Structure formats: C-alpha cells, structure tokens
C-alpha cells in the first residue's frame, strides 16, 4: 500500500515573492535556496499532483498542476496569494515568443536583488514594460522551457538590439502600445475615446483592427518594416483576461511582429482619424470586413474607420429603399466599388 505524501508543516525560510512575480519563478527560487530541483521540491512539500502526472514547465505551473493548499501550508503564503501568482492559461499553445523586460532584469542585477520572472510577461498581449515604458525583449518559449534554475533567468533574454532599432524608427509608438496594454489588462470596463467598453468588446475590437492592420501590411509592402516582410506567422490564442473571462485573438506568434501590429492597433484606437500618423483605411475589402462589425459598442466603428461607418449608414439607407431585392444588391455593389 502506498502511503499518501505527508503534509509539510512549514519551510524554515521562504523568500518573499517579488511584486508581480510569476508562481514558477518564485518556486524556482525556493528550490534553489534548498538545493533541490523543482520536481523534488514539490514532491517533498506534498504539492505534486496525485498519480504519476508530471510537473509541467515552471512558467505554466498554477493551481491546476500543483496543490496550492500544500504549498500554502509549507510556505505560510495564503492560497489566494499563490493563486494570484499563477500565469493566465493560453490555448491551444503559447506564442513562439513572449516578452521580458531587459531593464527590469538589469535593474535587479544592479541592485543585487534576485532576478525574478514577472507574471505580466506571460500575456500574449503584453508588448511593453509597464515600469520602464520600453518594448519587451523577445524570449523564445522553448528557451523558457529549457530553464531549470532561477540563476538562468538573466541569460534567457536574447540580444536583439538591431531589431529594436527597426521598431524605434517605425511610426509604431511604445507609448500607444502601453496605453492599450493597460486597458486590455484592466479586466474591467474601460473608457475609450468612443465611450465605456467592456473587456470582451475591447478584445474583439483589438482582434478585428489587428486583422485589418495585418491585411494592409500584406498588401502594401512599403509600410512594412523588413522584419515583417516574410509572412506573419499568425496563430489563434485564447487566454484568460480575468477569472472566468476568456478572450480570443489571432496575432503573430513572434513578439516583434505582435509589437508592430498591436502598436498600430493602439495608435488607431487612441487617436482620432485626422491625428493618425499613418493611413489606416486599408483596402475596400478590409473596410467591408470592418463594416460587418455592427455589434461593436456605439461609436467604435466611426472612430476606428469612418469610411466603414459611412458604408454601414448608406447600406442601411439602401436597404430601407429597396429592401432585399435585386436592385438593392446592384446598388450595394455600386456603393462598394465607389470606396475602392
Ligand atoms: Zn522594465
């Protein structure tokens, strides 16, 4: 008969989690302190899942993969605190690259503090460091998977100065991206230029505007930086906004490309059409796609794309005049070709 793992009554010393630290980052630091591997630490604390289920990669560890109750009694941190450090889930897979704040990592090193990994870097919509306001540096998800010790965090950030310069000379602005990121991560209703917007509506709008930005970048190579000329590796990501709220978007799997796309999306959502530094109208096809977004909050479409809002208005006029008759379809296609 196999005895249940005894419940650990408490570690003699537990490092305090840093602000916004990811659960797996803190666990790696605890494991390092006791000279153990992560799996061994979790086994000794009785926090491993029952049966032979393997411990997942450190950066995805959360309440589903380990026992937060056992961890709580061993660490004297509350279950709620521990659960808040768990990463958001991302399905069906993580992006190929996530971001990390190089200056945050350097600042910890300079101050002689332990290097920690932030929970906020685990969101596919995270593009900018909220502390320093600078673009996050790409870190391949497989590089994260290869980390087994807290001491390896510093080496995980790739040297990408050349690509950084490309982003800086683009119209894309880290300030705009940071503004949008804060709204997307708020998890509550937020105020946008057209009015109050629910979190789910905001991600739907971001997703559709990103789609328009990406299709414009495919058709007009002059506006695309050279790193983006190769096909954008666009993937679907469904992730948690807040507990119980899920959002789905299609975005590039590489961070630099996500930053480029979301920077442009942020610019469109933040600034009135006449104040924008690039033409965001796109092709007739993308205007038509935007015009089909009738369930957006009132005023959002007119802000994002006045031509699409005008198209909706005139289409409704035609419908009132001709109902759904052959004359309507003829008049509508004439209207569409007039916006080419
Ligand atoms: Zn930073």
Relevant terms:
340 residues; binds zinc ion
Overview of the structural elements:
This protein has 340 residues and is mainly alpha-helical. It has 3 domains: 23-87, no CATH class; 88-270, no CATH class; 281-340, no CATH class. 44% of the residues lie in helices and 10% in strands. The chain contains 14 helices and 7 strands. The protein has helices at 23-33, 38-44, 68-75, 79-85, 102-110, 141-145, 161-169, 174-185, 199-219, 255-270, 284-291, 300-304, 306-322, 326-338, and strands at 90-91, 97-100, 137-140, 190-192, 195-197, 234-242, 245-252. Strands 1-6-7 form a 3-stranded antiparallel sheet. Strands 2-3 form a two-stranded antiparallel sheet. The protein has a two-stranded antiparallel sheet with strand order 4-5. It starts with 22 loop residues before the first helix and ends with a helix. Zinc ion binds at residues 101, 103-104, 129, 131-132. Zinc ion binds next to helix 5.
Give the secondary structure arrangement, pairings included:
Layout: H1 23-33, H2 38-44, H3 68-75, H4 79-85, E1 90-91, E2 97-100, H5 102-110, E3 137-140, H6 141-145, H7 161-169, H8 174-185, E4 190-192, E5 195-197, H9 199-219, E6 234-242, E7 245-252, H10 255-270, H11 284-291, H12 300-304, H13 306-322, H14 326-338
Antiparallel strand pairs: 1-6, 2-3, 4-5, 6-7
Bound molecules: zinc ion.
Unreliably modeled segments: 158-162
Number of domains: 3
Q: Can you list the strand order of the major beta sheet?
A: 1-6-7
State mean pLDDT (0 to 100 scale).
85
Bound molecules: zinc ion
Structural class: mainly alpha
- The portion of residues assigned to helices is 40-55%
Strand content: 5-15%
Biggest beta sheet attributes: 3 strands, antiparallel
> Helix tally?
14
Give the overall silhouette: elongated
The number of distinct β-strands equals 7
> Over the alpha carbons, how many angstroms does the gyration radius reach?
24 Å
Spatial gap, N to C terminus: 75 Å
């Amino acid at each position: 008969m196999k005895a249940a793992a005894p419940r650990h009554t408490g570690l003699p010393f537990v490092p305090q989690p840093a602000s916004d630290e990811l659960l797996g980052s803190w666990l790696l630091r605890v494991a390092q302190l006791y000279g153990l591997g992560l799996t061994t630490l979790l086994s000794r604390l009785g926090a491993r899942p029952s049966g032979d289920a393997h411990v997942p990669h450190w950066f995805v560890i959360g309440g589903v993969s380990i026992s937060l109750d056992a961890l709580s009694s061993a660490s004297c941190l509350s279950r709620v605190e521990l659960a808040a450090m768990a990463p958001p889930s991302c399905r069906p897979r993580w992006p190929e690259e996530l971001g990390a704040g190089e200056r945050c990592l350097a600042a910890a090193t300079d101050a002689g503090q332990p290097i920690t990994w932030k929970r906020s870097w685990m969101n596919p919509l995270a593009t900018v460091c909220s502390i320093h306001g600078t673009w996050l540096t790409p870190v391949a998800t497989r590089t994260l998977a290869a980390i087994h010790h807290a001491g390896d965090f510093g080496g995980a950030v790739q040297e990408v100065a050349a690509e950084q310069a490309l982003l800086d000379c683009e119209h894309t602005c880290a300030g705009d991206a940071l503004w949008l990121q804060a709204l997307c991560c708020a998890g509550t209703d937020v105020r946008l230029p057209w009015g109050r917007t629910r979190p789910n509506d905001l991600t739907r709008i971001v997703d559709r505007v990103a789609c328009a930005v990406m299709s414009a970048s495919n058709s007009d190579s002059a506006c695309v930086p050279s790193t983006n000329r190769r096909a954008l590796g666009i993937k679907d990501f469904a992730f948690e906004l807040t507990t119980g709220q899920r959002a789905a978007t299609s975005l590039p799997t590489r961070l630099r490309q996500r930053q480029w796309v979301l920077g442009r999306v942020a610019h469109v959502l933040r600034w009135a059409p006449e104040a924008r530094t690039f033409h965001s109208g796109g092709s007739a096809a993308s205007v038509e796609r935007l015009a089909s977004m009738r369930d957006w909050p009132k005023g959002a479409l007119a802000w994002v794309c006045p031509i699409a809002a005008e198209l909706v208005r005139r289409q409704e006029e035609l419908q009132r005049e001709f109902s759904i008759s052959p004359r309507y379809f003829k008049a509508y296609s004439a209207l569409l070709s007039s916006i080419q």
